[in-house]
Here is the input.
Amino acid sequence: MSAPTIWRCVRSTALALVVLAAFPRAVLATSGTVITTTGKGLSLTVDTRWVNGAGFRPVWIDVIPTVANAADRTLTIEFRARSMYGGNQDLLVSQDIELPAGSTGVTSVLSVPQHIPWTQYELSVYEDGRFSKTLSQLSIGLPIWSHGNEALPNILCITAAAPPAATGPAPAAVGVAVASEDTSALAELLPADSNQGYYAPASVQTGAPVQLNTQIGLAVDRLPTKWIDYSQLDIICISRPALVELVDHPKRLKALGDWVAAGGNLFVEGLGDDFAGLSEVEKAFELPGLETPAGGDAMHRGWSLPPQSADQGLVENPFGRSETIVQPTEVVQVGPDGVPVTVPAAAPVQAEPPGDPAHPPFVYRPLGMGVVVGISKDSAFSLSTRQWAWVLNTLSPDRWLWYRRHGVSMQRENIGFWNWLVPGVGMAPVTEFRLLITLFVVCIGPLNYFWLKRRGQLHLLVLVVPLCASVVTLALFGYALVADGLDIRVRSRSYTQIDQRRGEAVCWSRLSYFSGLTPSGGLRFPSDVAVLPIEPRGTADSRSQARRRTMIWYDDEYHLPSGWLTSRTRTQLLTVRSRQTQAGLRFIESASGPPRVENRLGSAIKRLLLADSSGTHFRAMNVAEGAEAPLEPADLKAERQALGKVFFDNAPRVPEGLDPQAFADSFGSGYRYSYGTSTSANAPAATLQSSCLERCISRALADTSRFQPVPAPLPPRSYVAVVERSPEVLYGVERVREQASLHVVTGTW
Here is the structure.
């Protein structure tokens, strides 16, 4: 190990010890700090407490005047997060905060992408372009494992009343706190945060129930107003009173609903044994009523009952099934005289019997690409261990684990990076290079020698050889530059789901870039788009490429001026968008002829399969944007096969002749720091196949039922379309050249 590497390890260990000594355990559970500074007639409090993990992390900034504020004031906040590598990885996010005249204080939420593990951060405050030393906060330390454990779900509990302040320097006004619910029943099903390299329930590893370290609480009046601020979470639990209170905060309610639609899991608690509160949930999120199936109970309002096959008492997870807790028959205790004695163990707890599938403790229904789970009990954490396993098995780990749901790891290798590259660029033209080098060797060798010898000028070899070498080198460089071009090329793979009844659209897209030159204006995205970088080794790996990224927040968009898209470098982003939309298809019935469809998707349709209100299937081909076209009756099996061919023809593949390992090694070398616990490190690798994006595309195009004699029909009043370009996919720049992309749109009306 090199001296610089040893020094980095020593420095990181010292920083960890300092942080552990400086902050209370309750603050460490949320991996954040609360710091208050005063000066210039202001008090500024910055709260970085939140769960650990990838996505956008909300940072609360409270600005309170300490003296009367006679004029409008504008503060520019620069938040710089640093990794343990120093200059190798850091992030600068800036935003303006307006303090109106006469205001008693404002609260602003700064959305900071946490794609690197923070070990420290600093806050620089400017007013009228002048640096304020008294309000700024420099070198605030954080735990070095602040990137989270990918084997555990991140949970937020929303309460109606402000939760008690966490132990530490947090003022009473700050609403983030360590949630107080007893999570031992859930902890027994999940990997413990320990150094053991195998999966086992927490109670087995420690001998006592263990609280989750991935759970926090937040009051309704402190909830963010942008859905991307929830993007680090896997499960949100909200009580029935809190939901009623949230209805009076429409922006916060919409942000929560958009997060669920984007793939989140919302648990609504306290709906009662008769599930009387389901109607309140439907009203709050404007969910259409469902028909009660034949033989079903009307009190469930058509919500799905959990399958009995999921009630196993053990949780299905990426490690396999959770292990059974072994109850010892004898235990060793230390007597009063200090001598160990063996005594009989307490009577083993009887295994909980399976639940009644007709009267389960929870029901669920989809909301966009996410799920709303209705809990009959007052708290989800009142569920037993077996009932928690029932819930998690019903959802599947592809939903309740962040890295599985997104198909991306920020800590470990992303093996799917190399199977979705822009074709024809960034690859060395081996054949052309071999030809040029062969000509160079022949010309610079025997031909050059005999030509100069005939002229009697062999002494010029010392000039001709380096001159020819320079010309050939420039020719090789110029050929590569011309072949790849100077424009921005993008390969996109997207899935868009449109609920025309609610006017909601959700879009997941995987974007692969190759830019001949770095765009001078950087990238720009609206605030309803979450942008997540995908790197071969993960952004939290010390061997990943050095990145110094910057972000500037405006009212309803953010600017990525540097560090996100560099020239002649394979760059991939995962984007998730959830918003209101008017896009969709208009189905036009006709009494005298075939029905017609009007394309309002914002893009030309290549292939369309549609089911009307009666379940009759129709098809259409090549419908221009904004145009109407007649629909013709569809052979469901033939159309399913055609859509399946589109899916397999556009399946992600590693380019022929490319060695992913060799290219991954070229992204840097060095000692690899481990930020997750061993349970996280030993979790199965992240694959895009487990993501919402791939699962939805596969379900829409490659439904396995197409191989059956009678494929499963589309639900009434729904459609699936393959389009030229999804209007919900944004690339961050206006002028791009799209290649070999796949855009799938599904919808209901």
Notes: The chain has 16 helices and 34 strands. Residues 470 and 476 are 10 Å apart (CA to CA). The two ends are 62 Å apart (CA to CA).
